[in-house]
UniProtKB/TrEMBL annotation:
Keyword Transmembrane belongs to the record: yes
Principal location: membrane
Pfam families: RTA1
PANTHER family: DOMAIN PROTEIN, PUTATIVE (AFU_ORTHOLOGUE AFUA_5G01310)-RELATED, PROTEIN RTA1-RELATED
Residue ranges crossing the lipid bilayer per the database entry: 12-31, 38-61, 73-95, 115-140, 152-174, 195-213, 233-251
GO CC term (a single one): membrane
Cellular compartment(s): Membrane
Record's protein name: RTA-like protein
InterPro entries the UniProt entry points to: RTA1
Lipid bilayer topology: Multi-pass membrane protein
Alphabetical UniProt keywords: Membrane, Transmembrane, Transmembrane helix
Keyword Transmembrane helix: yes
Naturally occurring in which organism (per UniProt): Penicillium angulare
Length: 279
């Protein structure tokens, strides 16, 4: 049985609208990252580029309806599937930098040097599983190949959901410990770290909801309800990922790093010598 690329005629106007919005957001991220030399945020910029190219490819597919060719479909399917993994990698790195910025190693359930490695490794695994599964599915010639690609994608998405869930738990534990620490009274007026923790939670929740939607979509399969309506793609994927991009345009992590005052290290050293290094 041939694999049906779409169960509907994709909208050209929706694809163009999201391509334009992702383009604007990504150009903003590129400028913000370069201007502030916050190179650790590069994966996020690449993820934005993936979203942009993905919706351009989706527009090309929409223009071809109903005689779709494989290449635009494969490009949009793969890039839109894996882009959130790159957003996630940057979010993991932001938490590590917040912990180091606050000298809060003892408040983190996982050492900052290991925190980024652990979660980014999980993200890389998820990325390659989704990419591999998407490649298998896009070139599938039989039901068994379609099922294999579908299952690999589901596995990659589940890895992402689990990784993000654990990350949120680690973030909440660190946040609560810092709020209960005497050090918090000093840093809260100098560095808006707690606000950025809330931003991390928001960005993480957006990606988590999107990944949960994708899991449900692929579990149902190509004949399922979620893949039969284009609106779901734009509500639970495109819109959520665009909000994530805009969120970090407004609250770019370089702003957090720039808030460190010149005498901050001296203040921390005095706190530590006075016996207030954390519990």
């Amino acid at each position: 049985m041939a694999y049906e690329l779409y169960n509907y005629n994709p909208s050209t106007s929706a694809a163009v609208a999201f391509a334009v919005m992702f383009a604007l957001s990504t150009v903003g991220h590129l400028w913000q990252t370069g201007r502030n030399k916050s190179w650790f945020f590069t994966p996020f910029v690449i993820g934005g580029c993936f979203e942009l190219v993905g919706y351009i490819a989706r527009y090309i597919s929409a223009k071809q309806s109903p005689n779709w060719t494989t290449m635009p479909y494969v490009i949009q399917e793969l890039l839109l599937l894996v882009a959130p993994s790159l957003f996630a990698a940057s979010i993991y790195m932001i938490l590590g930098r917040i912990i180091r910025l606050l000298n809060g190693d003892s408040n983190s359930p996982i050492r900052p040097s290991w925190l980024t490695k652990i979660f980014v490794t999980g993200d890389v695994i998820s990325f390659f599983m989704q990419s591999g599964g998407g490649g298998i599915l896009a070139t599938a010639k039989s039901d068994s190949s379609m099922n294999m690609g579908n299952n690999v994608i589901i596995g990659g998405l589940i890895v992402q959901v689990i990784s993000f869930s654990v990350f949120i738990v680690v973030s909440v534990i660190f946040h609560r410990r810092m709020l209960n620490s005497p050090m918090h009274m000093m840093v809260k007026t100098q560095i808006p770290w707690s606000r950025y923790m809330m931003i991390l939670y928001t960005g993480s929740a957006l990606i988590l909801v999107r990944s949960a939607y994708r899991v449900a979509e692929y579990v149902q399969g190509s004949t399922g309800y979620l893949q039969s309506k284009e609106a779901f793609v734009y509500i639970f994927d495109a819109t959520l990922m665009l909000l994530c991009c805009i969120l970090f345009n407004i609250f770019h992590p370089s702003k957090l790093l720039a808030k460190r005052p010149q005498n901050y290290e001296e203040d921390l050293e005095m706190m530590n010598e006075s016996g207030y290094r954390n519990i």
